[in-house]
Amino acid sequence: MHFLNHIKFLFMTAFLLLSSSIYANSILVMGDSLSAAYNLKLDQGWVSLLENTADFQDTNYAIINASVSGETSQGGVARLNKLLTTHQPTIVILELGSNDGLRGYPLNKTKANLETMIQQSINHGASVLLIGNRMPPNYGKRYTEQFFTLYQALAEQFNIESYLPFMLDNVALNDDLMLEDGLHPNPEGQKQVLQNIMPFLMPMLSK
């Protein structure tokens, strides 16, 4: 048993070393259910779809998808520093905050948590792709507008050039592209989400 464990350890070590030599750069995706392929097969989510595009495969990047369904900005803060230290990503895709909004968390707390994650990413030498979202209209005009503009304020505060204001653009209001819960994209919707993200991500990969 000990011999087999030793063999497994050597195999995993060799695999990680090989991976690090093949991929000079990596992308860390910090998201919630919108990036964790909620209620779908993993390969139907936009992150897996990205990995399988020809344009992405021509780059020297690996993807670490650390997205967790139900994740809040506070949960992201608790996990991010260790992930940055472990993976040393070149790019961090930050897609968090929607669950804060859905749960009615104070927006100043959400903003402070996102500020912390952006600053931590910058301190580790990573560029940030900031992805925003919108709340359903039943949350009230004042709250939904404040939530939406929170991300714009962060992009300006940190001078983030790669900022996607609305991840579900051309998806959220199309029933054919959403699951029955009305909050998450279905497989076809995930394809459109990827199309929304690609124009902001691809220029970052060529720098």
Q: Stretches where pLDDT falls below 50 for ≥5 residues?
A: 12-22
Major sheet? 5 strands, parallel
Output the number of helix runs: 8
Annotated CATH architecture: 3-Layer(aba) Sandwich
End-to-end distance: 47 Å
The first-level CATH class name: Alpha Beta
Given the helix and strand composition, which structural class is it?
Answer: alpha/beta
Strand order of the largest sheet: 2-1-3-4-5
Judging from the principal axes of the Cα atoms, what is the shape? globular
Query: N-to-C SSE series?
Result: HEHHEHEHHEHEH
Taken together, the total number of domains comes to 1
Radius of gyration: 18 Å
Q: Can you give the mean pLDDT?
A: 91
The CATH topology comes to: Rossmann fold
Proportion of beta-strand residues: 5-15%
- The CATH superfamily is known as SGNH hydrolase
Q: Kindly state the percentage of residues in helix.
A: 40-55%
Number of strands: 5
Keywords: Signal
InterPro entries: Ester_Hydrolysis_Enzymes, SGNH_hydro, SGNH_hydro_sf
Protein name: Arylesterase
Domain SGNH hydrolase-type esterase: 29-191
